[in-house]
Design a protein that fits this description.
3 helices, 4-stranded antiparallel β-sheet, binds iron/sulfur cluster, alpha+beta
C-alpha cells in the first residue's frame, strides 16, 4: 500500500491550497476571548459557563478563551464551505498563515471540565470565603474581552 504523505505548509506545491488537504478544522468550533479569572466569583462564573455544554477553556500565554465546539451549519460533507460567496467576514479574513491545520491541540493550560477548572481555582486562590446566610446571590454575566 502506498504511504500517505502528510502535506505541510513547506511541502505545499505552487498553486495548491492548504485547505484542500484539511478537514476544515477551523469551521468546527469557535473560541471567545474571555477575561482572565482572578477571583472566586469569576472562576465560579466560568465553571457555570462550562456546565452548559461540552465547552472547554484554554489558555494561550496570558489570554484565556472559551472554546465552543460545533460544526458550522454550512460545512459540507467534503469539508468545503456551502456558502462560500456569502460567508461571514470573519471567514473571509481568516488565512492559512497561522491556522490550526497542523495545530497539535497543546495549550499552556487546558480545562476540559468544570471540575478541572474548580480544582485549579482551589490551587491558586486564597481560601474560599464562606457565603453568609442571606447574602445576595448575583447571576453571572458573560464578559467578552
Ligand atoms: S484555514 Fe486552515 S484550518 Fe481552515 S480549512 Fe484551511 S487549512 Fe484547514
Ligand atoms: S461559513 Fe463557510 S467558511 Fe465560514 S465557518 Fe461556515 S463553512 Fe466555514
Amino acid at each position: 500500500m502506498e504511504a500517505t504523505t502528510h502535506v505541510t505548509r513547506e511541502t505545499l506545491k505552487a498553486g495548491e491550497v492548504l485547505c484542500s488537504y484539511c478537514t476544515a478544522r477551523c469551521c468546527r468550533y469557535f473560541a471567545m476571548n474571555i477575561d482572565k479569572p482572578t477571583t472566586w466569583e469569576q472562576f465560579d462564573n466560568m465553571r457555570w459557563y462550562m456546565m452548559h455544554g461540552p465547552f472547554s477553556i484554554f489558555v494561550d500565554g496570558d489570554s484565556w478563551y472559551l472554546l465552543i465546539p460545533g460544526d458550522c451549519q454550512h460545512l459540507q460533507a467534503d469539508h468545503r464551505c456551502g456558502t462560500y460567496h456569502t460567508r461571514p467576514q470573519i471567514c473571509r479574513d481568516y488565512t492559512t498563515d497561522a491556522c490550526e491545520y497542523d495545530n497539535d491541540g497543546v495549550y499552556d493550560q487546558y480545562f476540559e471540565t468544570p471540575d478541572q477548572l474548580w480544582e485549579y481555582a482551589h490551587a491558586i486562590l486564597p481560601a474560599k470565603p464562606r457565603r453568609a446566610p442571606g447574602d445576595p446571590v448575583s447571576l453571572p454575566v458573560l464578559q467578552m474581552a
